[in-house]
Specification:
alpha/beta
C-alpha cells in the first residue's frame, strides 16, 4: 500500500465459503506426510470470530443448553497452526487453560516461541496428531476443530469424533466446521475441471498459477451464473483458499443427515449452529414437547434448510449424547445474553418511520433493517463497540433513545423477535462476556501486550478484542508496536515521522500527527488499548 496508517478488517462474503474459510492448518501430515503444499501456500493463522468460546456458549444458551463458563474453561484447538486463533483466547481469559494441537513442527515451534515471548502461562502448543493425542490431556470444556472434518480421510474424521467424545467434559461443547453437500453439489464441476486441468506434481504456487489460467478459460466457455460468480471470486481470493479448497486431494462435503448419524455413532449430539442462519427453525405443534422428542423433527428441518438455501458451510456446535438435550433456538433466551455490533449506516438513521435502511459491518455484509427500535439498538451497540450490552440494558436504552427522539411507541415482543433474527444472521453477535475496554487513547496511549507483540512479529495477525483479524499496513503495525505508554500523541507523531522518513516516506509533521490521532482511535475501536 502507498498510504500510511492503513487498517481494516478483512472482507468476507456473506454466507459464502470465504465467510467461514476453512483453515486446513494442520492437515498436511495427517493426509499425506510428504505434502509440502501447506508450507508453500499456507493459510494465515487468524482469529476466527465464531470459534470464540463466549460466542459458542451464547449459541448453546439460545438452544436451551447450559454451557461451561468460557472465561474459566479448559480449551483445546485441533489443528491450531501457530496459535493465531487460540493464543488470543488464552490472553483474554487468564483463568482458562488452553492447549493447541498442531502436526507441523515448524508451526508448533513458532507458536511456542510466541507464547514464551508473550509470557503466557495458561497456553501451550503441542506437536501431535489428533489421531494419537498425548496421554493425560484430560477433559476439555471447549474443543475447536475449524477446517478439519471435510478435508481429511474417513479414518481421520472418525478420530476427530472420537476425540470429541473422549475429551469433552460432561457439559462441554465442541465446534466442528465442515463443507455441506447441498451447496457444493453445483460447484463440483468446477473442482473437477481444476483437478483435471492442472498438474498435481507441480509445486503449489505454480499449480495455483496454472489454475488461474484454467479459470480464465472456463470463464469464457461456461454459462452457469453460479459457477461464473464463483470463478470471479476465486480469481481474487487468497491463493491458499483456491488451492486448498479446489485442488486439495480431499474435500468431502457431507449432508446434515450424515453428520448427525456420525455424531450418534460416536455418542455425540447436535446443539446448534455457530454460523449465520438465513432462516429460523420453528417446529409446528411442538408446544409441550421435551427436547428429546423434538430431535428427529429438528434434524429434518436442518436438512430442509440446507437444501432450500444451498448451504455450503456449517459451523456446528456439538455435545456428548449424555448431556442435556438442546432444542431449536428461542427468542426468549435472549434475556441471559449480551450483544455487540460493529455496524455503520451511510445515511441518517430514521427513527420515526418503518423505512428500510441498510447497516453494514466491516466485512461488507449488509443487513436491511426496518423497525425504528432495532435501528436505535444498532446505533447504541455500534457506539459501545467492542463492549457489549446485556439484553435488559439494551432494551431499556433503546426505549429511552426512542423517547428522547420523540418516538414513544416501543413494542418489546416485536423488538425481541427482530433482535433475535438479526442475531441469527450475525448482524449482532451474542456473547456471555460483555467485556470492558478502554474507549479512548488517553494522554499516554498504550496498547496491550498481545497487540504490541503481534504488531512486532512478522507473520502474526493483530487480533481485535472481538476476535477479528485487524489488517494493518507497515506504518500501522509500527505505531501499534511502539505504543508502550511512554509517549504522548505529539511525541508519537514525531517518532513516527522519523521512522517513516527512514523507510522512504517523508511527510509533514502536521499530517503525520493527524494520521497518528486517527490511527489511535481506530486502535481504540478494536479494543487494543489499556
Amino acid at each position: 500500500r502507498r498510504h500510511a496508517f492503513g487498517v481494516r478488517c478483512p472482507a468476507t462474503r456473506s454466507g459464502g465459503a470465504c465467510a467461514g474459510m476453512p483453515s486446513h492448518r494442520a492437515l498436511r501430515a495427517m493426509t499425506a506426510p510428504a505434502d509440502t503444499s501447506y508450507d508453500e501456500l499456507p493459510y494465515d493463522s487468524l482469529p476466527l470470530p465464531e470459534t470464540q468460546t463466549d460466542v459458542i456458549a451464547a449459541v448453546a444458551r439460545l438452544h436451551g443448553f447450559d454451557p461451561p463458563d468460557p472465561t474459566r474453561a479448559r480449551i483445546i484447538e485441533l489443528g491450531c497452526a501457530q496459535g493465531g486463533n487460540l493464543i488470543p483466547l488464552a490472553w483474554r481469559w487468564p483463568e482458562s487453560e488452553c492447549v493447541g494441537v498442531e502436526l507441523s513442527r515448524v508451526q508448533a515451534t513458532a507458536g511456542t516461541d510466541f507464547v514464551r515471548r508473550l509470557g503466557l502461562s495458561n497456553v501451550r502448543i503441542v506437536h501431535a496428531d489428533l489421531a494419537a493425542l498425548p496421554a493425560g490431556l484430560g477433559e476439555f470444556d471447549y474443543i475447536l476443530a475449524h477446517g478439519v472434518l471435510s478435508w481429511v480421510p474417513p479414518a481421520v474424521q472418525q478420530a476427530l469424533f472420537d476425540v470429541c467424545r473422549r475429551h469433552l467434559s460432561p457439559n462441554g461443547l465442541a465446534y466442528v466446521s465442515f463443507n455441506v453437500a447441498a451447496g457444493w453439489q453445483r460447484l463440483q464441476p468446477l473442482r473437477a475441471a481444476l483437478l483435471e486441468r492442472t498438474a498435481a506434481e507441480l509445486p503449489a504456487p505454480e499449480r495455483y498459477r496454472q489454475a488461474l489460467r484454467v479459470l480464465a478459460d472456463l470463464e469464457t466457455d461456461w454459462r452457469d451464473p453460479l459457477l461464473l460468480k464463483e470463478i470471479a471470486y476465486l480469481k481474487t481470493a487468497a491463493p491458499a483458499y483456491l488451492f486448498h479448497e479446489y485442488l486439495a486431494d480431499v474435500n468431502a462435503p457431507m449432508d446434515f443427515a450424515g453428520f448427525a448419524a456420525a455424531l450418534d455413532a460416536h455418542g455425540l449430539r447436535y446443539v446448534g449452529e455457530a454460523g449465520p442462519r438465513r432462516a429460523r427453525v420453528e417446529l409446528e405443534d411442538a408446544w409441550g414437547l421435551i427436547p428429546e422428542s423434538m430431535a428427529g423433527r429438528w434434524a429434518d428441518a436442518e436438512i430442509a434448510l440446507d437444501d432450500a438455501f444451498a448451504a455450503r458451510f456449517r459451523r456446528a456446535v456439538i455435545a456428548r449424547a449424555d448431556a442435556p438435550c438442546a432444542q431449536p433456538p428461542r427468542a426468549d433466551a435472549l434475556d441471559g445474553l449480551a450483544f455487540h455490533a460493529d455496524l455503520r449506516c451511510d445515511e441518517e438513521v430514521d427513527l420515526d418511520d418503518e423505512l428500510e435502511q441498510t447497516f453494514v459491518n466491516p466485512a461488507g455484509n449488509r443487513f436491511p433493517v426496518t423497525a425504528p427500535a432495532l435501528k436505535a439498538a444498532l446505533m447504541l451497540l455500534s457506539m459501545r463497540y467492542p463492549a457489549a450490552l446485556d439484553y435488559a440494558s439494551l432494551r431499556d436504552a433503546t426505549r429511552a433513545l426512542l423517547a428522547e427522539h420523540g418516538t414513544a411507541r416501543f413494542d418489546e415482543p416485536a423488538f425481541r423477535e427482530a433482535l433475535f433474527d438479526l442475531a441469527m444472521l450475525h448482524g449482532v453477535a451474542p456473547t456471555v462476556w460483555p467485556g470492558s475496554f478502554a474507549d479512548e487513547p488517553g494522554a499516554l496511549p498504550q496498547a496491550h501486550d498481545l497487540a504490541r507483540a503481534q504488531a512486532r512479529s512478522a507473520g502474526w495477525v493483530v487480533s481485535g478484542a472481538r476476535h477479528v483479524a485487524v489488517d494493518l499496513d507497515f506504518a500501522g503495525r509500527l505505531l501499534l508496536g511502539a505504543r508502550d505508554g511512554s509517549r504522548d500523541i505529539d511525541a508519537l507523531a514525531a517518532w513516527m515521522q522519523e521512522r517513516l522518513a527512514e523507510n522512504g516516506l517523508a511527510l509533514p509533521l502536521d499530517q503525520v500527527a493527524e494520521l497518528t490521532r486517527q490511527q489511535l482511535w481506530l486502535y481504540a475501536r478494536q479494543g487494543l488499548l489499556v
